[in-house]
Each structure stands twice: as structure tokens, then as C-alpha cells.
Amino acid sequence: MTAVIEISGLHKTFRGWRRGPKVALDGFDMVVEAGQVHGFLGPNGSGKTTTLRALLGLVHADSGDMRILGTTSADYIHVAHRVGAIVESPAFFGNLSGQRTLELLAMAGGVPRKRVEETLVAVGLRDRGEDLVKSYSLGMKQRLAVASALLKQPELLILDEPANGLDPAGIHEMRSLVRELASRGVTILISSHLLDEIEQVCDSMTIISRGRRVTHGPVAQVLAQHDKGEYSVRVADPAGALEAIAAAGGSARLNEGKLVVSGVTDASWITQTLGTAGHWLTELTALTPDLESVFLDVTGTRPGNGLMSDVDDGWQPPAPAGRAEIEIEVTR
Q1: Where's the ABC transporter domain (predicted)?
Q2: Closest of 94, 21, 8 to residue 55, by C-alpha
């Protein structure tokens, strides 16, 4: 496959007056192949949005190499017309209608006006296109943002939290839209906190933590790499079954009245071992990893491990009453 996005050794540090330097990216790498739907995951503050902003030329990286559609980031302007993107929460004029907003964007980008109606239909806003944006819900504004990214019929679509504010029906529609675009050959990079959605729609993924890539690859492959060969077993005497597994050289633990057997490559070993010891199974279930469990493990954000986020909160005492403090982050 041809790489549509190539990022290698990306570094970015923000310099604040009060809290000091904040390392956002620390040698980050990512590759997105043509025609893929690629998930971009990470805890809050891990560097996802900074990566996207750097890729699109909205912030200057300190060092590293980036190529988008075969062009270096310095020459991004030459391929910008082939890329559609929404990063963070786009702002719109509340006193304009959704349709008028898209018409102005189409006019500015040299896009045929017919694309306005087509994109409104694609994101489910056809019946609300003439309503003022200020009357839109958060989910509707997010749909409008996606519509604006689709105006140019891009070859590469970059979506930062596209399902933000959407209800279950809206999330389902967004999933269908992503699949439809992918079937047309559009390469899509999605940054999202909805792990089950990433697992359903993405071909491959990259997980970032503390500014570094911690795992990447096809979704199925990443999940398979974290399969511990565990099975959940229900028996009448869990404690006795635990002893039988241990006596046979196996590894197991008790969990909420069930037996969890680990490191097993063939489930028949469990049935044979417990049957020989007189323990009859009433349930045997393979515990295959899902994306949520893998995400929590590789980012170190599983509850109870003392690290719940990549965000360095840098807590400071509140400013005295009547005095405002402004922190400025300088990019160069």
C-alpha cells in the first residue's frame, strides 16, 4: 500500500510562563496507508490534537518528519485541496444558517455549489439546512463540521472526535457515513474516545501515550497480540477446581464465583483436567480482549494503577481574588 500519512520522530514542546515547558510530542511515529480507516487513540493530553494540528500546518513542530499525500508538511498548501479536516470544535457564525455557512465555504474554496446540498444530505442535515446555526444542538454543529470537511470531496479525511455530542442514532449514522466514504476509496483518520466505534469501523490504529506511540497495526492484530489465552469457567466447586488446575500445572484465579484459567492454547485441556478431577463444567467462555482493555493496559490508565490520565494537571493555587492570571503558550 501507499502511505498517505507518514510521521517520524515528531517532537513538540509548548513553553508556558507559569508551568514551564510541556512536552506534547516526544518522538511520535505514525503511518496511515491509502484506503484505510485508521483510528488514532490516546488519553486526554496524550498529544493527539497536537499531532493533527502539526500535520495540517496549524502548529509548528520542533523536529521530526511529516509527509501527507506524498508531500512534506512545508508544502502542505499544494495538497490542501485534497484534504478535508475537522480539528477540535470548529466555530461557526450563529446568525448564519447551516446551508449559508456551507455556501460561503464552498465559494471560498472554489467548490461547486451543488456540493452543499449533497453534503447536507450526507450528514443528515437536509431538513435543518435553512435553520440558524445558533439553534443547532452540539451534535448538529458536529454534523455541520463534518459536512464542511466533505465539501471538497477529499481523498484524505481527518476527523477529530466526529461523534462528539451525537446521540446513539447519530453515532450509527456517522459510522455508516465513514464506511460509505471508505468504500469509495477515501482514506480516513479518526481521533476518538469511543473505543467500540473504532473497533467496529477501523482497519488499523495507532495508540499514543505521553507523546509517544505505544502500539499500532491492524485492529485485529493488535487485539490478538494482547490475547492472554484466558477462559472463564463455571463449576459447582470453584475452589476445588482451582486446586485441580494448579495440581495439573495450570494457572488460574477466582473471579466473582468463576474460575479464570490463563495461558491455555486449547480449551479441551480445561475440560479434560477438570472432568478427570470430578468437576463438571456448566460454562466455558473464551475471554478475548476488546479494544478498551488493550487501551487501558498500553496507556497505563486502568483504574487502580494510580495513573488515570496522561494529563499533567500542574495544579497551582488559585489566584487571589480580583487578580487574573494569563498563561501564554509560545509556539515557534
Answers
A1: 5-235
A2: 8
